[in-house]
Design a protein that fits this description.
mainly alpha, Arc Repressor Mutant, subunit A, 2 domains, 3-stranded antiparallel sheet
């Protein structure tokens, strides 16, 4: 399991007892989905490697009333026994409240990431469109098509490629070598099927 630790914990009334704060943070991690740590102090000590006397002292402080607590639920206690007939097993008092805050934070963050991905995808799509348009402009210049005259068509309505001389002339005007002109011409020849 994992738990979100809120910064305000460092400003709470248990902050001055760092061992208590650490044990409480450990309990947040050990808690089940309902905020229950159904373990003995010895088990908590064994899993967290905190000394048993530190765990025992922290559990005593966390389950005692705290008039300086931010939340007065259960008189400011952080934990309470889940069964009054035994001396172990605790429920974290405000666990669901903080889990709901965590859930809304996670939802907000996942929405932010989703929106960023969506913007990145749109930006990438626009970049491809711009590159494609620029590529068509270069091809049109190589063909000698400035957009003011119609592209020649064959009698069947297909595309008529420009002659190699026309392509070389257009390539020279925009500074392309003859080798590129030959490549363009070969491309148009294959497109026209001729």
């Amino acid at each position: 399991m994992f738990a979100k630790i809120f910064k305000q914990m460092y400003h709470s009334s248990i902050a001055e007892h760092y061992k208590t704060r650490v044990v409480f943070m450990d309990m947040l991690v050990l808690a089940d989905q309902e905020g229950v740590v159904d373990m003995t102090p010895e088990s908590i000590s064994a899993i967290t490697r905190a000394p048993l006397e530190d765990v025992t002292e922290a559990l005593k402080i966390l389950s005692s009333p705290d008039p300086a607590s931010r939340s007065m639920a259960h008189e400011g206690r952080r934990i309470k026994l889940i069964d009054s007939q035994r001396l172990w097993g605790w429920a974290i008092v405000n666990y669901k409240k903080y889990m709901n805050i965590r859930s809304s934070d996670l939802l907000r963050e996942s929405n932010r990431i989703r929106q960023q991905r969506k913007r990145d995808k749109a930006r990438s799509s626009r970049d491809v469109t711009v590159r494609h348009a620029k590529s068509r402009q270069v091809e049109a210049k190589a063909e000698g098509d400035t957009g003011t005259k119609k592209t020649p068509r064959t009698p069947r309505g297909g595309f008529a490629p420009p002659s190699i001389e026309e392509v070389k002339l257009a390539a020279a005007k925009i500074g392309l070598p003859d080798t590129e002109a030959v490549k363009f011409h070969a491309h148009y020849e294959s497109t026209a099927g001729g």
